[in-house]
């Protein structure tokens, strides 16, 4: 890929978003329905751009956050070779928080194995993010608790997480916290 082609791409995040879309033109691998093949193709293009220089390359941490948010385990695994699992965005959200929020259990497990703190920071806690996804995130909540997440964490305003789950009728998650 030539430098001008990389400049036209704008940023790796834009390319990453294009690569994960169903209509992307990422070679034969992207046309496959297999998500690992799509991840590999997206990663290949990301590496090509990354190798071209910093002018079009956002921080690896930003890409890790995006990969965690959309559930691209293979891409996240590669990015963890370039940045820490505890990488956080400008608002303080970590990759673990984002993967937990959207129920991406394989990414959550990967980040935990690679050293992400199951209790996150002082304010933004992965367990709170996971519980936002409701009972459908029971696997993620279970993985976080198994990794040592504090089940007594408090929500914004000081309310106990268990009280919020009870109010929301998330009985499956509430059972996991008990």
Automatic annotation (TrEMBL):
ANK repeats: 91-119
SUPFAM superfamilies according to UniProt: Ankyrin repeat
This protein's UniProt keywords: ANK repeat
Pfam families (UniProt xref): Ank_2
Magnesium listed as a keyword: no
Source superkingdom: Eukaryota
Name used for this protein in its record: Uncharacterized protein
Organism: Gonium pectorale (Green alga)
